[in-house]
Amino acid sequence: MAYVITEPCIDVKDASCVDVCPVDCIYACESVCPVSAIFPEDAVPDKWKNYTEINKNYFNK
């Protein structure tokens, strides 16, 4: 299942998740995200659904 990084993460310089988060495994970061910005694709809140497409475009570069 894909995980989506949403708006609360924008401009956050906290970096507390960096040591936990493997490069290609965003799901591992979900529980340590200081701003609760990471969701399984099927659980993204309606107000941030557009981030599913934003993430897809970003990670397909």
- Estimated share of beta-strand residues: 5-15%
Query: Could you give the distance between the termini?
Result: 19 Å
- List SSEs in N-to-C order: EEH
Q: Provide the gyration radius in Å.
A: 11 Å
Structural class: alpha+beta
Helix content: 10-25%
The average pLDDT is 87
Kindly report the spatial arrangement of strands forming the biggest sheet.
1-2
Number of strands: 2
CATH class: Alpha Beta
Shape: globular
Work out the helix count: 1
**Largest sheet, if any?**
2 strands, antiparallel
CATH topology name, in short, is Alpha-Beta Plaits
Low-confidence stretches: none
Number of discrete domains: 1
What does this structure look like?
The protein is an alpha+beta fold and 61 residues long. It has one domain (3-59): Alpha-Beta Plaits (2-Layer Sandwich). Helix content is 16%, strand content 10%. The protein is built from one helix and two strands. The chain has one helix at residues 50-59, and strands at 3-5, 38-40. A two-stranded antiparallel ribbon has the order 1-2. The two termini are 19 Å apart.
